[in-house]
Amino acid sequence: MSPPPPATPFSESPSPPPSAEAADPPETQPTSARRRPGGRTARVREQVLDAVSALLVEGGYDALTVDAVAARAGVHRTTVYRRWKDVGGLLADVLDAAGGDGWRPADTGDLTGDLTALNQEILAGLSARPPITEALIAASFRSDEAARALRRFWDDRYERCGAVVERAVRRGELPADTDARRLLVAATAPLYHELVLLRTPPDPELPAQAARSAALAAAAGAFGGTRG
Amino acid sequence: MSPPPPATPFSESPSPPPSAEAADPPETQPTSARRRPGGRTARVREQVLDAVSALLVEGGYDALTVDAVAARAGVHRTTVYRRWKDVGGLLADVLDAAGGDGWRPADTGDLTGDLTALNQEILAGLSARPPITEALIAASFRSDEAARALRRFWDDRYERCGAVVERAVRRGELPADTDARRLLVAATAPLYHELVLLRTPPDPELPAQAARSAALAAAAGAFGGTRG
User: Fold this and answer.
1) What is the ipTM of this complex?
2) H or E element: which one contains A158?
3) Which of A4, A193, A227, B60 is at a distance of 20 to 30 A from A35, taking alpha carbons?
4) Is 60 exceeded by the pLDDT of residue B162?
5) Among partner residues B150, B151, B217, which is closest to A213 by beta-carbon distance?
6) Helix H or strand E encompassing B186
7) Which phi-psi region, left, alpha or beta, contains residue B127 (left: φ > 0; alpha: ψ -120 to 50)?
8) Can you give the pLDDT at residue B18?
9) Hey, what domains does chain A have and what are their CATH numbers?
């Protein structure tokens, strides 16, 4: 069983779940697409987005053209142009599809456990082979549309992770006015910094270590509360 | 007076200081370059690296070619090919030159102050215009040689910041076995994550906030010590 998409785009399965199409917010759905969830439109989208992911990990952003995607997906190029317009639109839809899942953060019973589980998913995503997450992050430096979609994806993931902080507040582990986003960024940022920017080999201890230090800081009121 | 290069490549001044050439370790200095610090070789290097930075911020990685750099720098293209070989070599030398300075972290008298000062330099570097730091990070996703040079640069910066942790240990603010690198990454990673990957507008409170939370976690033993 593959893990659910973590707070990185995804770990192994680039295909959106069947519900992703129906879950799309209207503004990310080109008006020309006929919406028949589970039907031909959904199949074409899955084929096209799989082709984008495959080409991206194989040849990077430079290998991505609408024509190459259409050929790889086995669909007509005018279908791709009409629905996704260009490479930026394709990349954004890969990210929107990845975000259109039912992912929820693990509930382990305590804050450090929840943050460790989240960080383990991030580590798995960032060190997965093929490196789709890494390739999407790299592509976000080439396409503004992909950058905006990546930001939407992460904002949504951090939003869902707010549940981790709410549970910890309810258990009395954290001050009630803890800034969830700041705590979550503090807990997860060392993973992204080490693996994406510093390009350090994955350290299996880092997820728990970064989770523990953020939880200690949070309990001490670093993200709100009397000492914040 | 411009600030010293922060833990990001640099904030405003892309020119290496006069000492940078002499300070180069042997392996980053192409063997064909005749080393006459302060002389013609140093001047040519400065002109060429300034041209690389200018072209990079103006047109991104795609605007960088050896010929364009030579034309912009007003030096013969064979000089550039001979000494830097290719775009990767040019980018790596920009980063090596930026690292060849006398930068040291500020000494404010306490750990939170030192980490805040460091984070303020990082925020300034990442939000500087022209966005040379941002452009170099983006280029590191295009060139393995630039990626390695960026990693060298940051590793060296974190190494120099070890002084911040040593001082805090001597003052009794931290356990003696504090892992300096982990603490420093925890303190600085939220800046990089928010500004480079999440692309959040610069938040002037973030430097102090991230510094305070890392210092609280460190004092609680999160990076070593009895509770680590």
Assistant:
1) 0.84
2) helix A144-160
3) A4
4) yes
5) B217
6) helix B180-192
7) alpha
8) 34
9) 33-99 (1.10.10.60), 111-219 (1.10.357.10)
